[in-house]
């Protein structure tokens, strides 16, 4: 005879409640990390269905049976919580625009590899303020992400890319030689020719006996000298070049949709 909904096993109830809480956290995590509404709905609906069927299963005898799923769900919930922590850590360490590691990671990795020789590459994306002021901050974001993607497309696993400021990027070349760093810069310059963007570069080499901050300062100084030469060249250029540059920026930006 059907006796109605009865809560039976208390441990099953505990497991079910724990699972529901974890899955609700999962829903809000996905809501925060995925801006597309349809995926929010899918994540939420899936999580709620799992929680519902795993927590309460009605039997003809009138008792709620704590089934296999009710015991599996807590482990799933724990896994989801670990995933949440991993995603939070990634959000904490990854720049949302360029998808590069942040400044804190640059110094943390430098400390971790301080017993190795390293190539320090200082990079500054040229004309970012001009792009932001004249074409909008979305165009500036496109410039930053495009530059980062160019670097990622040509660098080897020895080199780690960071965004350390507004238009500033750094690379650590773990156990890399100066020749390898110079070759990488050359490849980045070549690849950038497919875009409207340019970048100024500076290199300095770190040895375990060196003061890391001093090495970074010298890499920055080399980059600033490269930027000075770029600005001098731009001043001497034909004014029509500026119009061509603006048009190339406008066309490139209008054809890019990966930030939508």
From TrEMBL:
A molecular function GO annotation: diguanylate cyclase activity
UniProt keyword Signal present: no
Q: Where is the GGDEF domain?
A: 116-239
CDD domains (alphabetical): GGDEF
Known SUPFAM superfamilies for this protein?
Nucleotide cyclase
- Name of the protein in question: Diguanylate cyclase (GGDEF) domain-containing protein
Q: What is the lineage of its organism?
A: Bacteria, Bacillati, Bacillota, Clostridia, Lachnospirales
- Per its UniProt record, what Pfam families does this chain match? GGDEF
Give the SMART domains listed for this entry.
Answer: GGDEF (SM00267)
Query: Which chain regions cross the lipid bilayer?
Result: 6-29, 41-58, 64-89
> What are the protein's UniProt keywords?
Membrane, Transmembrane, Transmembrane helix
Coiled coil location: none
- Give the highest taxon in the source lineage: Bacteria
């Amino acid at each position: 005879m059907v006796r109605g909904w009865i809560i039976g096993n208390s441990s099953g109830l505990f497991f079910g409640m724990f699972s529901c809480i974890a899955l609700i956290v999962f829903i809000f995590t996905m809501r925060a990390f995925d801006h597309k509404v349809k995926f929010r709905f899918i994540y939420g609906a899936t999580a709620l269905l799992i929680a519902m069927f795993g927590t309460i299963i009605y039997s003809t005898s009138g008792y709620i049976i704590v089934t296999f799923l009710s015991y599996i769900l807590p482990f799933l919930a724990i896994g989801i919580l670990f995933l949440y922590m991993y995603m939070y850590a990634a959000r904490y360490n990854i720049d949302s625009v360029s998808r590069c590691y942040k400044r804190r990671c640059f110094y943390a990795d430098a400390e971790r590899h301080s017993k190795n020789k390293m190539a320090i590459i200082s990079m500054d994306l040229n004309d970012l303020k001009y792009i932001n002021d004249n074409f909008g901050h979305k165009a500036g974001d496109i410039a930053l992400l495009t530059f980062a993607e160019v670097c990622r497309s040509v660098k080897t696993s020895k080199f780690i890319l960071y965004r350390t400021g507004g238009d500033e990027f750094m690379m650590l070349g773990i156990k890399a030689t100066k020749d390898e760093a110079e070759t990488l810069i050359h490849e980045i310059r070549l690849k950038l020719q497919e875009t409207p963007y340019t970048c100024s570069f500076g290199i300095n080499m770190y040895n375990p006996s060196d003061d890391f901050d001093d090495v970074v300062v010298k890499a920055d100084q080399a980059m600033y000298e490269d930027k000075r030469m770029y600005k001098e060249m731009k001043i001497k250029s034909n004014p029509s070049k500026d119009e061509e540059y603006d048009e190339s920026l406008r066309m490139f930006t209008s054809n890019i949709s990966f930030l939508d």
